[in-house]
Amino acid sequence: MKGKIKHITIALGICLLLAMIVLGLKNRNTIYTWFLGDVQTLYMQADSLYRQKRYEDAATLYSKLAKIDTAKRCQFILGDIYYQGKTGVRNYKKAMKLFLESADNGNADSQNNLGYMYAYGIGTDIDYSKAKKYLSLAALQGHSQAQVGLGSLYRHGWGVTKSYSEAFQLYKKAAAHDNTDAMNNLGYMYTFGYGTSTSAGDAIYWFEKSASRDNVFALFNLAVFHIEGHGYPKDLSKGAELLSRAAELNSPAAQFNLGLMYYFGKGVEKDYAKAKHLFQQASAQGHNHALEFLMKVENKEKVSETDSIYDWKLKAI
């Protein structure tokens, strides 16, 4: 009898333990939140550190908050710190993990970032199906950058049937929300008549509107229009001025072309030192033509000016 009672007691103890484990797992989020203490104050502290650009300290606090299942904003911000390498080192693997958690909780910024990572193979293999999935989810929430990204999938035909008209409409939606990339892309579409009729006037309107907000692609594209005389009289000096603004915003194409203009004295006075510096900046960002030209300049090879050495291809995201 005593043995039987002992077995029953053990069985009840095991059942109670299992019940406690199940209950603990079910309420782990609540328990962890309770363990953290004043979550709102912790979040405000993390936010303050982030605004002060003390990213390592901010990341420490955000990492605690991001473990809360529903902390989608903290998951996004911490992911973005890793994505942009704000602590000194980029970590796309950690960024993607956090974006996925945040995106599953409905965060549009994370969904957008995942879309671009899958579309361009940033920290992962290119997967247009997943890119479309996440960009679509964010676009449905009115995320203008996701509308641009989704539009570009349609413009290129990446994972979807190519449709310039669909791309054009998505860019228009995003431009209506003051997205400068969308404005630039509309200028690009009007230039080539993609999804709309060709119109240099409309292209210039959108490039100028985007460039006035310092969009680096639009500044470059406007420079090309001035240099080549599209919708404007040819004006190398104005083109160089616009390229200079784009170069300051780290456009490798602008740095390379402006370097050539200084090297050959086109629209600016010849200045080999400035030319070399611009080639170095562009080559450091992976611009192959800039690297080739820099090597020729450093080896004092004779370089003849021809139109083919310039890189005037219009830019769209």
TrEMBL record:
Q: Where are the transmembrane segments?
A: none
InterPro entries (alphabetical)? Sel1-like (IPR006597), Sel1_AlgK (IPR050767), TPR-like_helical_dom_sf (IPR011990)
Pfam families for this protein: Sel1, TPR_16
- The source's domain of life comes to Bacteria
- Name-wise, this protein is Sel1 repeat protein
State the species of origin: Phocaeicola plebeius (strain DSM 17135 / JCM 12973 / CCUG 54634 / M2)
